[in-house]
Specification:
Helices cover about 65% and strands about 0% of the residues. With about 230 residues, the protein is an all-alpha fold.
Length: about 230
């Protein structure tokens, strides 16, 4: 936006420029994890309004903010091999922060103590308390849009596919150790060894938990994630 040689906003009026700048700024600020439950509440309110009026549409600015927010935490809905690499990078960042805090004589932040936290448990906690409720509510807010008879694929796929991948990844983390996560060869072997029935059972349990959790207010212990998971 500031590069005069690119000039992507050159044709906008002053009013349009500031409207665009405001919109983009709000989308960027939506990635602040301290605002996570604000967006959860927006989605719950939208779902309640849609129950009363199926034709109601989401505010476009809110929808764009939610899409950017989802992209920001999308590592947990990626294919297992990709999600694993991001899990390592994220927890490395957490633990390095904790090391620096310890070296300076500071209290180590929640989730950042490599001596008391497990990489796998951190991923499971992030999914259970933050990602699963978010993507479950989004799947309900943006269902697949169907074409007419005989037409395919769907006009909009919705969030069911990434939500299913999230459940798969969570089930896989629950059946693995930090050592599995840290060793690419072993992780691949572990993923292939896990019985499909075990993954289905774990995924079904998570689906049941999601359906319950999104109807409730966030549990008190998730305040740790509100403070400490901005690096995710």
């Amino acid at each position: 936006m500031c590069d005069r040689d690119v000039g992507i906003l050159e044709g906008l009026s002053s009013t349009q420029y500031y409207q665009f700048r405001s919109s983009v700024s709000k989308m960027i600020l939506a990635t602040d994890m301290t605002r996570h439950f604000e967006y959860i509440n927006h989605l719950k309110e939208f779902s309640a309004r849609r129950d009363e009026d199926p034709a109601v549409e989401m505010d476009k600015q809110l929808a764009m903010e939610l899409m950017v927010k989802c992209a920001d935490v999308s590592n947990v809905i990626k294919p297992a091999a990709v999600a694993r690499r991001w899990a390592l990078r994220v927890t490395d960042e957490f633990f390095l922060q904790g090391d620096a805090e310890r070296d300076m004589g500071m209290e180590v932040s929640p989730t950042c103590d490599r001596f008391s936290k497990s990489r796998v448990d951190l991923q499971i906690g992030f999914i259970d308390h933050l990602a699963a409720p978010l993507f479950t509510l989004l799947a309900a807010a943006f269902p697949p849009a169907r074409n007419g008879p005989g037409e395919s694929p769907p006009a909009r796929e919705g969030f069911e596919t990434p939500l299913e991948q999230l459940r798969h990844n969570r089930a896989l983390y629950a059946l693995c150790s930090d050592a599995d996560l840290e060793t690419a060869r072993d992780w691949g072997e572990t993923a292939s060894r896990v019985a499909p029935s075990s993954l289905r059972a774990a995924s079904q349990q998570l689906s049941s938990d999601e359906a319950t959790s999104v109807k409730k207010d966030p549990p008190r212990h998730t305040s740790v994630w509100k403070r400490a998971s901005a690096g995710q």
